[in-house]
Amino acid sequence: MLTRVFDAPRELVFKVWTDPKHVARWWGPHEFTNPVCELDLRPGGAILIHMRGPNGVVYPMKGVFQEIVRPERLVFTSAALDSDGNPMFEMLTTVTFAEESGKTKQILRTRVIKTTPQAAPYLAGMEQGWIQSLERLTAYVATESKE
Questions:
Q1: In this structure, is residue 130 part of a structural domain?
Q2: pLDDT confidence tier of residue 146, bands split at 50, 70 and 90
Q3: Is residue 121 a part of any domain in this protein?
Q4: Cα(123)–Cα(125) distance, rounded to whole angstroms?
Q5: Strand order, beta sheet including 103-115
Q6: What is the pLDDT of residues 9-63, one digit of tens each?
Q7: Quick check: 120 pLDDT over 90?
Q8: CA–CA separation, 130 vs 86, rounded Å?
Q9: Average confidence (pLDDT) over 99-107
Q10: Is 8 among the domain residues?
Q11: Residue 117: which residues within 8 A CB-CB, separation 6 or more?
Q12: How far does CA 108 lie from the centroid of its chain?
């Protein structure tokens, strides 16, 4: 579970979580880019993100939106894919957004619901990956809230 407070309205924070052009700018660890970022924002809608590391390696992931309560809550599954496109592990993530005096308190909860033996090194870095993604999100929201 990771908590962040953004100096931005809840609607803006929700938007940068759900609009692929915004998600592509902050998703993933530091120095990663997202050459593919597709979100079908509806229950049952697909998520497809290809994260490219600074070394050029692409880490594809896919998922499905389970629940969308605008602008309060997102629930989705996500799975890191191996080189053959098979899931190595699957996570269930819930993100809540609460308005607090013009700011937004975001709580992210994620848990592994399926795994394979090859997932161990990826899972070992999962928390740090989320921390870095949220650091990037914090910086991105700060620039977006000024516009």
A1: no
A2: confident
A3: no
A4: 5
A5: 2-6, 103-115, 87-100, 73-81, 58-69, 46-52, 33-39
A6: 999 999 999 999 999 999 999 999 999 999 999 999 999 999 999 999 999 999 9
A7: no
A8: 22
A9: 96
A10: yes
A11: none
A12: 9
Tokens of 54: 């600074």
Q: Is there a contact between 138 and 102 (Cβ–Cβ < 8 Å)? A: no
* Tokens, residue 67: 């629940």
In a domain, 105, yes or no: yes
Whose tokens are 């803006």? That residue is 12
- Token pair of 119 as six digits: 């997932």
3-state secondary structure (DSSP) of residue 39: strand
Give pTM, 2 decimals.
0.93
- Number of domains observed in the structure of the chain: 1
Q: What is the pLDDT of residue 119?
A: 87
The pLDDT of 82-100, averaged and rounded, is 95
Q: Which domain holds residue 91?
A: 2-116
For residue 107, what is the domain's CATH number?
3.30.530.20
Residue type, 90: E
DSSP string, 50-80: EEE-TTS-EEEEEEEEEEEETTTEEEEEEEE
